[in-house]
């Protein structure tokens, strides 16, 4: 970890903790976020985590730049990751099938694998939620096995079904809502990822751990899944 503080606006600082995206970054980012919340108190207006950074907005009527820097530096002093680094654990059932995951076969061919290998590799590990973005409840998770890594499609779909599970580079995600998208789709989950009646709306939050669990078609339908097929689209970039 190599902390640097950067001024990005008259009321905002960027704390850059790492230079590369790694799974081990997240516990440190979460620990730093908690310390910053405590250090700034009511003067903190917003705190936005990313893969390697934390951007904080503070109330300039309460703090000047020098005091904001001092509080941020104090928050990092002696920073440690607790033994329990927080985050909920989730198991998301997934029906892996070309009818709802049109790139399942393509990813297998790309990696010299069988579709069953893609399913096994994707569902045999836990993924940390790095960040939420793109759409409400859309959780960027990683990292997938290198054999599954693939670039986004060169021609994104105009409509991706809610629950669609995909891969882009070494990240994986499930679309919470119907939206455009260019990820390589390999299946679909019946889980409700975004719900306005839920506290915080999103099922998944940064720091959570997610395991995907393969289910059959009958179970998918019983859990409320929509099996409307999706057609293949433009090929992934070379």
TrEMBL record:
Enzyme class: hydrolase
Keywords on record: ATP-binding, Hydrolase, Nucleotide-binding
Single GO MF annotation: 5-oxoprolinase (ATP-hydrolyzing) activity
Keyword ATP-binding tagged: yes
Location of the Carboxyltransferase domain: 3-204
Classification via InterPro entries: CT_C_D, Cyclophilin-like_dom_sf, PxpB
Organism superkingdom: Bacteria
SMART domains on file: AHS1
Originating organism: Pseudomonas mangiferae
Protein name as it appears in the record: 5-oxoprolinase subunit PxpB
EC number: 3.5.2.9
Gene3D superfamilies: 3.30.1360.40, Cyclophilin-like
């Amino acid at each position: 970890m190599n902390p640097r503080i950067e001024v990005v606006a008259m009321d905002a600082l960027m704390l850059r903790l790492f230079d590369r995206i790694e799974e081990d970054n997240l516990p440190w980012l979460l620990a730093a976020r908690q310390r910053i919340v405590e250090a700034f108190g009511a003067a903190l207006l917003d705190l936005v985590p990313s893969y390697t950074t934390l951007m904080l907005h503070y109330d300039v009527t309460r703090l000047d730049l020098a005091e904001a820097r001092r509080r941020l530096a104090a928050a990092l002093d002696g920073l440690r990751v607790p033994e329990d680094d927080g985050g909920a654990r989730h198991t998301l059932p997934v029906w892996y099938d070309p009818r709802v995951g049109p790139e399942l076969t393509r990813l297998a061919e790309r990696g010299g694998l069988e579709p069953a290998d893609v399913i096994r590799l994707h569902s045999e590990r836990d993924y940390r939620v790095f960040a939420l973005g793109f759409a409400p409840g859309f959780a960027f998770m990683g990292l997938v096995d290198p054999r599954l890594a693939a670039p986004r499609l060169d021609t994104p779909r105009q409509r991706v079904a809610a629950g669609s599970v995909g891969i882009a580079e070494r990240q994986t995600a499930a679309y919470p809502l119907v939206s455009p998208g260019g990820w390589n789709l390999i299946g679909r989950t019946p889980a409700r990822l975004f719900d306005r009646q839920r506290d915080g709306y999103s099922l998944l939050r940064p720091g959570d751990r997610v395991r995907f669990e393969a289910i059959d078609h009958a179970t998918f339908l019983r859990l409320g899944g929509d099996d409307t097929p999706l057609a293949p689209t433009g090929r992934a970039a070379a």
